[in-house]
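FORM 7B: Structural annotation worksheet

SECTION A. Query
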Amino acid sequence: NLKGAVYKTTGNFDQAATCYFEVLNLAQELRNSTMITSALGNIGNVHLYQDDYEQALAYYQRALEVDRVIGYELGEAINLGNIGLTYIEDSFTGLLQRRLGDSNEEVLAF
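SECTION B. Predicted structure
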């Protein structure tokens, strides 16, 4: 997960996603639910950083489902927060695009 975080922080999202999917696969093999929910949340974060809100929500929802099944309240709180943040980000971006006439250059300049 740390390697994925470094890639994500430096903007290398493809490499970050690859690392997080490797962790997810390992966690599934080990049947480690806490590790699974963490990996799913991290994959969601990669999508959020890329403004891919639908995919981010899908991964956060999957993580939340696992959290609830295993009774992991901290993970549930984190993923509910991530879901809320995703809706806020999507709403803010959509509002900016409507106000600026969908001009990506203007949105980036903002």
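SECTION C. Observations
The radius of gyration is 15 Å. Residues 106-110 have pLDDT under 50 and may be disordered.

SECTION D. Sign-off
Analyst initials: ____
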